[in-house]
Specification:
The chain is of the alpha/beta class. It has helices at residues 20-32, 40-43, 50-60, 76-88, 101-106, 112-115, 125-136, and strands at residues 10-14, 36-38, 63-68, 91-96, 120-121. Strands 2-1-3-4-5 form a five-stranded parallel β-sheet, with helices on both faces. The radius of gyration is 15 Å and the shape is globular. The two termini are 29 Å apart.
Amino acid sequence: MEQTSAGNRLIFISHSSKDTWVARQIAREVSLCGATPFLDEADVEVGEDFEEKILGFLEQAHELLVLLTPWALDRPYVWAELGAAWGRRIHIVGILHGMTPTEFQSRPGIPVFIKKRDLLDINDIDLYLQQLKARAGANINDSGGFEQ
């Protein structure tokens, strides 16, 4: 995990491997907001203990951003990461991609702690990024928004 300066907001990005490209774009935008993203495929080196690296960052993270897609909901690591974030009581942001809020809510087995959150559609991610920028205290211009 890369070292961060004091006060830097750490954002754990949870996603399915099928969503890696989208997760990379989100990580780039998180960086532009002045926060430090953790993306497993970028931050876990070959040969490292994958679970230890994930747990280590989750122990330090200020927020968990979870990319909720139909295939991510079948990925055990996504649920483990959500549970760890919930247990630490850190900020959890759910971004829906490839499903509507109604489809997500009607899916069996979704825990109440995630169902009761305000979830954002991927097309509304700018709202999250604006709020993150304020939380991160970034002094960057407004032209660095998420490009569609």
